Amino acid sequence: MVDISLRLSVWLETVPVLMRTINSRHVSIAAHSCGVIYALNTIYELPWILPSSNRKLYLFSPWVSPEHSGLMMLSISSYLPSPLINKFDSIVRFINTTMMPTVHLSGMVSGAVSAPFTADQECGGSGDSGRRNPLPRHERDELCREYCGVSAAENSARFKELMRATFEESTRGANHEALLSLRKEAAGAWGVCDDYKMYPDALEAKLRAFSRETRAGAGRETGQSDLAPTNDPFVIKTFWAEKDTMIDKKGEVYFNKCFERFSEINGGSSGDGNEHKYLLYESEVVPETNHETVCLPQYEALSRALRDMLGRQE
Fold it and tell me: CA angle, 59 as apex, 275 and 100 as ends, to 5°?
């Protein structure tokens, strides 16, 4: 297993090698939760990896550290000793295979804590005890058949089998991801996106330099030489969950604020209005979703991203 402090650097070394191995020069990228840390580093260090036809990065509920999301549970977790967090996979394995095999990992604790307080509200209060809210989209038969090709019951059974198979193998890598997400010293920094406030400007500067090299025909072995110059800005498209117990609205507001200068409202990175745009930030909230379900196909955000990657119209 790769040492936790080297995970990001090894990832960035591995991606170009993998691309050469599969004989592919470009790929579209989407990331969820703490995977965003890797994605943001990838497009900064390897800007050539995205195709000219779709210079976009798709983020789903990007991870925001507890110091900025303000979530008490995660803030407390960040103070736990690293050796204890390094046993995280054993705890999750026991809960998911013995106690709660059908519960999603990230929603497990928060759901258990909040359930007694939200159950009455979800049923419409004491006066509406006989009325229930509609099933969520990922539990509806017609939508599961449309987006997953199976019934809701079959889709649920598939997830249970996936969890069973997952925990039959080693999941120690999850411990390292937890240490990285909680910014424990052993995990090291988050690379170029260690400070979300500084990252957008750094990325834009990188994209400017990359654009100049591309227009000058300064190709590299990486595959940059076959990129056609384009006037389209690089786009970061973010999909937020409506109710996210891992990020919370405070985390969403913080992340959006970091990219505010590059938003559509402010004209991207146009500066004084005469400068070419190199970076554009877009964000939206996906209705009826949480941290995990935001990237399920039944809620359409992922489907839209995939159609966009393929150049298909909505």
Answer: 165
How far, in whole angstroms, is CA 32 from its chain's centroid? Answer: 2
Taking only the tens place, the pLDDT of each residue in 63-89 is 999 888 877 555 545 545 555 445 555
Distance CA 158, CA 297 (A): 15
Q: In sequence order, which residues have a C-beta less than 8 Å from that of residue 148 and are 6 or more positions away? A: 155, 297, 298
Window from 115-119, 204-208, 210-214, 300-304 with minimum mean pLDDT: 115-119
Type of residue at 114? S
Find, among 193, 198, 167, 170, the residue nearest to 180 by Cα.
Answer: 193
Distance of CA 176 to the CA centre of its chain: 17
Average pLDDT over residues 201-219: 84
Order of strands across the sheet that contains 234-241: 29-32, 56-60, 234-241, 279-286
DSSP assignments along 203-271, one per residue: HHHHHHHHHHHHHTT---TTTGGGPPP--SPEEEEEEEESS-TTTHHHHHHHHHHHTGGGBTTTTTT-T
Cα distance between residue 15 and residue 12, in whole Å: 6
> What is the rounded CA–CA span in Å between residue 19 and residue 26?
8
pLDDT digits (tens, 9 = 90+) for 241-256: 999 988 999 999 999 9
Q: If DSSP states are collapsed to H, E and C, what string results for 126-153?
A: HHHCCCCCCCCHHHCHHHHHHHHCCCHH
Domains of the chain: 4-78+187-309 (3.40.50)
Reduced to 3 states, what is the DSSP secondary structure of residue 42?
helix
